[in-house]
Structure formats: structure tokens, C-alpha cells
Amino acid sequence: INYVGGAGSITAAQFLQRFIINKTPWAHLDIAGMAFSKKAANLNPRGATGFGVRLLNNLIKKYYEWNMLEKTLSIIKPDAIERNLEDKIQEILVKKGLAIKEKKKVKISKEEASEFYKVHQTKSFYDELCGYLSSGPIVVMVLEGENAVLNNREIMGATDPKKAAEGTIRKLYGLSIDKNSVHGSDSIQNAQKEIQFFFKQ
Ligand code: CMP
Fold this sequence. Notes:
This protein is an alpha+beta fold. Helix content is 50%, strand content 13%. It has ten helices and four strands; from the N terminus they run αααβααβααβααβα. α2 crosses α3 (48-67). Adenosine-3',5'-cyclic-monophosphate binds next to loops.
């Protein structure tokens, strides 16, 4: 890892050129090297290098947030909690590369469940669905990882356990289309809304 030299603004320009425009994967190593070798205490906070280091560190963090580590909401439903499957389900998720960033056990009211499942309000099963989610304790988790939304849905398997692939959570533990043990956000946009619903900042 080398400090590529130059004022921070020049290095920032090199980073943008190499890493973002040319998509050269090693460009960020130069930057990380610079950030390591130039400790904050040695930097003139008003100088171009100090500015560049902070800018690049923030860019790198954002790059990883946007491109690598996605978040999704996962719920272990009442049927699985009742059968003490909480640990087994978490183990599967972690083994498949999803990190559990937040977790809490809650019991929600039917009104809260109706709000959570609002996207399904026109469906024939809506009332039953809301009654079920509020029928007992649930574990809500924020999962993080590469392609977390899609990855989690693959790990869960098809909504109907009878149609779920071998090795998926719903195939292993789901009892019926209602009591299908887990819920997972179906898109990045819904994941953000669902995370916000349970883990208000
Ligand atoms: P979930 O991923 O939590 O999202 C909505 C839920 O509705 C779904 O899992 C199912 O448990 C439930 N559901 C009940 N009946 C149906 C149905 N006929 N089709 C799809 N989902 C259903």
C-alpha cells in the first residue's frame, strides 16, 4: 500500500478517475494507505490533504454502503417462536452470510400488524394475516450483507412451504402458507420502510 502523494484534492481526483470512472479495484488501496499513513493528528485540518482524506474516507464508506452491504428486515413469525426455532433460523441466516445487526422480540397489536402489511390490504387473506402476525411474540431482525434482500428471500424459500426448495427455512420449518415461519422484505425500498417501522431512529 502506497501513499500516492500529491495534495488531497489531487488524490481525490485520482480516486474518482481510477476507482469510479475506470473501475480499477486497486485504486482504493492507495487511498486506504494514505488514510493509514497520514494520521488525523498529522494533517492540517484546513489543508487540502486533510480535506482529501476525509472526503475519500466518506466516499469509500458510502461506496460500500451502497454497493456491498444491503439491509433487509426479517421476522421470525409466531409459529416458529412457539416451536423454539429462533436459534436454528438465526444460525441458517448467519451461515449463509447475513449478519444480524439489530434484533428484538416483540408482540405487536393487530393495528400495528395491519399497518405493517398495508401493501396487502386488498388481498382476501389480509385480515387473517394481520391477526396471525399479532397472535404471539415475534423476533424482528435487521440483516446485513451483499444482496441481503434477494439473498434472504432465497434462504427463506417460496411463500408456500409446499413449493419451497430443499434446504430453505420455509421448506424445513413452514407449516402452511400462513404459518410459514419467516417474513423477509421483498425489495430494497420496502426493506427501508420495514426497518424504519420496527427500528425507528
Ligand atoms: P410474508 O412473506 O410474511 O408476506 C405476506 C404473507 O401473507 C405471506 O408471507 C404469507 O404468509 C401470507 N399469505 C397468506 N395467504 C397467502 C396467499 N394466498 N398468498 C400469498 N401469501 C399469503
